[in-house]
Structures are given as structure tokens and as C-alpha cells.
């Protein structure tokens, strides 16, 4: 079986993973959106990773989804709303026992992908690392963090897991990946939409703690109803800790909105509200939050799904 890491999506996180794996001598191939993007990439001569004051370019080979050859190991590094359409393009190339590692934030996109590639093993990741694009094909490693990986259907650690340690990618295998993803989703729901609505940094929510608290109560009820009681434990305290620790930061949703980019709302607050609906749970604060956010995005001319 080939040990090449195919990386679908050479944006912020995809490039960060690609450069570290390539630096450690692992075989890496990028899969880019189309021929035009491939040509632009080839003209740039590779991916550039900026880390503290070090800048280094990696001439990682790239192709489009239409290239030939089976894919045994695929890292999907698109936004949540792009993951399923992107995987559809490479699905015919996925080998019978292929492993697909999904880096998407939130919940829902993982199942959309898994439905499209039932023959592959889908591994979910929850990342607290931070990276952003300084320009096309140039990424800054902005925040050290950690990656939890797991497969809700199969607790066996993948054979390639040590590649991550060898590449300096901090990671741990967990059998509770869904708990981690739900907890992160809940933290996001309690903080990010409010920063957009109140037009503030995370610390600005210290002036709206009543609203935050009411959301946490509903989110904890939802987590328990979804069979995730551990993700509900101490949620409100953690939300307050995150608000204090990141008081000067702008949330990812705030940054997306202010850059005129589509948000991942559908896979975050949208997912929470849909899950509540499926369980017949009335969560008026969360539903009102979603409604206000959708109106806000619509008024800005941004996609609201
Ligand atoms: P990003 O910088 O926008 O990168 C996404 C990449 O996907 C882009 O390069 C885009 O291509 C590519 N793409 C989209 N459709 C494609 C297709 N059909 N074929 C090939 N490539 C395709 O996004 P990101 O910030 O890395 O985020 C990726 C995921 O990681 C998100 O769910 C995010 O929430 C999560 N995450 C990000 C961070 C972070 O610090 N960035 C941290 C934790 C979690 P183009 O370049 O052609 O547009």
C-alpha cells in the first residue's frame, strides 16, 4: 500500500500539514482545485511556510483530482462546506482500504464525506493549531496547539500515526473524538456568533455574560440529549475561561465575516439547532441566536447557510 499523503486543499491547515510532513521526508502530493490553480501553484514553485522568523519553501508535487493513480491516504483540508464536493471529485481514485483524515471544524461535514466514500475509513480530527494564508501558497503558522484524532467506528490506531510525531505534528489518538468535536462546537456556539452580533473581540463578551450563560445552559442540555454528557461538564466555566484567555482575539467567525468570506455556520450553530430539532428539544436562545446571525449575514450579502 502506498504511504503517500495526498492532501486535498492547500489552504491554511492543509499547507501547514503538507510542509511539516514533507520536511520530515514523507511522500506528499497536493490535490488542487483545478488546472488554473495547479498552474498558479507551479509558477510559485511550491508552498512557503512562515514560522516565527523562518521562511522556507517546499517544492511539494501537486495535481488535480483528475490525475491518475489510486489514493490510499487522504487528508481533507477544505472548509466544512467544501469537504463533500471536493471528495466527490477524488472518490473514484480512493483505494478499497483507503483512509481519509478529516480536519474540518464543527460537525456534519464528516458524515457527508463518509456517505460519499462508504468503502474508505474516515478518521475525524479536532485541531487547536492556528494558521493563516499570508498570500497564495504562503502560510503562517500562527498558533501552536494540538490535534486529537479518532474514528467513532473503529478504535484501532492507524499504522501511519507515528508519521505525525516524526513530522512534529502534535497529535494524540482518542476513542472520544465525537466528545471533543461536540465540546469544541459548543464553545464555538457560545462565543463566535455573539462576537459577530456585538461586533467585538472575544473579551467584549464580558459585557454580555448573561447572554453567554443562557446559551451555555441550553448547549449543555443539547449535549446531554445527544449522548455527550462529558462534553457538557463545566461548559460555562470553560467558555468564561476561553473568553478571558482570548480576550484580545477576534473569533474565526468574526474574521470570516469581516473578510467577506462564507462562514462555517451550517456545521456549527446550524448543526446544533438541527440536532435539537431532531431530538424534539426546544432551545429558544440558540434558535434566536441562529435567526439573528442569519439576518446579520444576509444584510451583509454573505451566504447564511
Ligand atoms: P482555507 O485556508 O480556506 O483552505 C481551504 C482550502 O481548500 C483552500 O486552499 C481551497 O482552495 C481548498 N479547496 C476547496 N475546495 C477544493 C476542491 N474542490 N479541491 C481542492 N481544493 C479545494 O481553510 P483552513 O483555514 O485551512 O480551514 C480548513 C478547515 O480546518 C476548516 O474547517 C477550519 O475550520 C479548520 N481549522 C482551521 C484552523 C486554522 O487555523 N486555519 C484551525 C483549526 C481548524 P483555493 O485555494 O483554490 O480556494
Average pLDDT, all residues: 97
Distance separating the two termini: 39 Å
Query: How would you spell out the order of helices and strands?
Result: EHEHEEEEHEHEEEEHEHHHHHHH
Assign the CATH superfamily of the largest domain. Answer: NAD(P)-binding Rossmann-like Domain
Under the CATH scheme, which architecture of the largest domain would be assigned?
3-Layer(aba) Sandwich
CATH uppermost class of the largest domain:
Alpha Beta
Give the strand line-up of the largest sheet. Answer: 5-2-1-6-7-8-11-12
Helix content: 40-55%
Structure annotation, total helices: 12
Question: What small molecules accompany the polymer chains?
Answer: NADP nicotinamide-adenine-dinucleotide phosphate
Shape label: globular
Secondary structure: number of strands: 12
The parts where pLDDT drops under 50 for at least 5 residues are none
Secondary-structure class:
alpha/beta
- Give the biggest sheet: 8 strands, mixed
Rg estimate, integer Å: 19 Å
Domain count, please report it: 2
Quaternary organisation of the protein chains: single chain
What is the CATH topology assignment of the largest domain? Answer: Rossmann fold
Question: What can you see in these coordinates?
Answer:
The protein is α/β, with parallel strands linked by helices and 305 residues long. It folds into 2 domains: 5-175, 3-Layer(aba) Sandwich (Rossmann fold), CATH 3.40.50.720; 179-300, N-(1-d-carboxylethyl)-l-norvaline Dehydrogenase, domain 2 (Orthogonal Bundle), CATH 1.10.1040.10. The protein is 44% helix and 21% strand. It has 12 helices and 12 strands. The protein has an 8-stranded mixed beta sheet, with helices on both faces. Helix 6 crosses helix 10 (252-258) and helix 7 (209-225) packs across helix 9. The longest helix is centred in the middle third of the chain and has 21 residues, at 177-197. It is globular, with a radius of gyration of 19 Å. The protein starts with a strand and ends in a 6-residue tail after the last helix. The model has no long low-confidence stretch (mean pLDDT 97). The site of NADP nicotinamide-adenine-dinucleotide phosphate (NAP) has 29 residues, from helix 1, strand 2, helix 3 and strand 9.
Amino acid at each position: 500500500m502506498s504511504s503517500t499523503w495526498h492532501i486535498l486543499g492547500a489552504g491554511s491547515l492543509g499547507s501547514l500539514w503538507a510542509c511539516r510532513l514533507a520536511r520530515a521526508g514523507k511522500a506528499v502530493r497536493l490535490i488542487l482545485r483545478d488546472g488554473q490553480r495547479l498552474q498558479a501553484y507551479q509558477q510559485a514553485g511550491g508552498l512557503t511556510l512562515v514560522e516565527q522568523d523562518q521562511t522556507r519553501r517546499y517544492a511539494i508535487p501537486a495535481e488535480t483530482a483528475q490525475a491518475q493513480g489510486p489514493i490510499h491516504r487522504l487528508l481533507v483540508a477544505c472548509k466544512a462546506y467544501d469537504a463533500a464536493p471536493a471528495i466527490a471529485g477524488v472518490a473514484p481514485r480512493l483505494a478499497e482500504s483507503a483512509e481519509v483524515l478529516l480536519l474540518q471544524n464543527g460537525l456534519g461535514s464528516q458524515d457527508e464525506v463518509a456517505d460519499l466514500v462508504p468503502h474508505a475509513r474516515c478518521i475525524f480530527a479536532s485541531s487547536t493549531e492556528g494558521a493563516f494564508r499570508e498570500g497564495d501558497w504562503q502560510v503562517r503558522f500562527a498558533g501552536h496547539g494540538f490535534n486529537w484524532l479518532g474514528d467513532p467506528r473503529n478504535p484501532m490506531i492507524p499504522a501511519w500515526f507515528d508519521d505525525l510525531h516524526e513530522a512534529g505534528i502534535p497529535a494524540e489518538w482518542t476513542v472520544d473524538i465525537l466528545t471533543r468535536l461536540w465540546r469544541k462546537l459548543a464553545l464555538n456556539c457560545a462565543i463566535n456568533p455573539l462576537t459577530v452580533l456585538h461586533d467585538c473581540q472575544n473579551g467584549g463578551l464580558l459585557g454580555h455574560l448573561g447572554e453567554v450563560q443562557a446559551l451555555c445552559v441550553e448547549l449543555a442540555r443539547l449535549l446531554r440529549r445527544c449522548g455527550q454528557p462529558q462534553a457538557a461538564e463545566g461548559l460555562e466555566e470553560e467558555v468564561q475561561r476561553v473568553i478571558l484567555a482570548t480576550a484580545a482575539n477576534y473569533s474565526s467567525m468574526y474574521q470570516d465575516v469581516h473578510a467577506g468570506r462564507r462562514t462555517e455556520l451550517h456545521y456549527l450553530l446550524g448543526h446544533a439547532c438541527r440536532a435539537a430539532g431532531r431530538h424534539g428539544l426546544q432551545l429558544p436562545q440558540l434558535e434566536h441566536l441562529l435567526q439573528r446571525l442569519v439576518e446579520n449575514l444576509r444584510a451583509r450579502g454573505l451566504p447564511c447557510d
